[in-house]
Amino acid sequence: MKDLKKYIEGKLAEYLLNTPYYLVELNILPSKKLEVFIDGDQNVRLDQCIKINQYLIEMIDLNSELERDFQIEVSSPGVSRPFNSLKQYQKNLNKMLEITLCDNSVLEGRLNEVKEGEIEILEQIKTKNKNIHKAKTKPHLISFNEIKQSKVLVTF
Q1: Per residue in 1-53, pLDDT tens?
Q2: Are 34 and 72 in contact (CB under 8 A)?
Q3: Fewest CB within 10 A of the end CB: N or C in the chain?
Q4: DSSP tag of 104
Q5: Within a domain: residue 80?
Q6: Number of domains into which the chain is organized
Q7: Rounded to 5 degrees, what angle do the CA atoms 2, 71, 38 make?
Q8: pTM of the model
Q9: Is residue 81 one of the residues assigned to a domain?
């Protein structure tokens, strides 16, 4: 099998086609571990991860060209993993994001709009005036080409 990763991604995309879930990332580690991250419009449930894991085991077992000695781990990406698909931005509309730009500057703001090729956030403007209690925001358009990574900002 020339490109195992592309083969598994293709098979998994077919499997997920008529479901509310989609593949976010697939990694084949040197330790023979297959990491699969899925997401969906709703939260990913444990039973769905188990079904996908079972599908992968059966798909690998049925293909005589594939090595069978893999540890398979299927999960949702969680809040700590950066986004890598347009669907993840759409799912997290109106949530606070931390965005690292290609120049390594970091922006924080509420994801206001997702367009083809760019997003708009309402950037939090930090003020030194202690008498101002309401945080100010300003709209900020960011091209996907400018973004190094984005992830949900967890606040308590």
Answers
A1: 458 889 899 999 999 999 999 999 999 898 889 999 999 888 899 999 999 99
A2: yes
A3: C
A4: S
A5: no
A6: 2
A7: 80
A8: 0.75
A9: no
CB atoms within 10 A of CB 64: 7
Whether residue 68 contacts residue 61, with contact meaning beta carbons closer than 8 Å, is answered with yes
Residue at token pair 């069978």: 68
Q: Do residues 41 and 106 lie in contact, with contact meaning Cβ atoms separated by under 8 Å?
A: no
Among 53, 75, 97, where does a domain finish?
A: 75
Q: Which residue has the tokens 């993993």?
A: 81
- Host domain of residue 98: 86-152
Q: How many helices (H) and strands (E) does the chain have?
A: 3, 8
% pLDDT > 90, the chain? 54
Judge if 68 and 9 occupy the same domain.
yes
Q: Which of 21, 46, 75 is the last residue of a domain?
A: 75
| Helices within 2-154 (DSSP H only) | 4-16, 46-62, 86-91
Dihedral sign from CA coordinates of 52, 56, 61, 63:
positive
Residue 38's CB is within 10 A of a number of other CB atoms, namely 21
Cβ–Cβ under 8 Å, residues 16 and 24: no
H-type alpha helices, 85-126 = 86-91
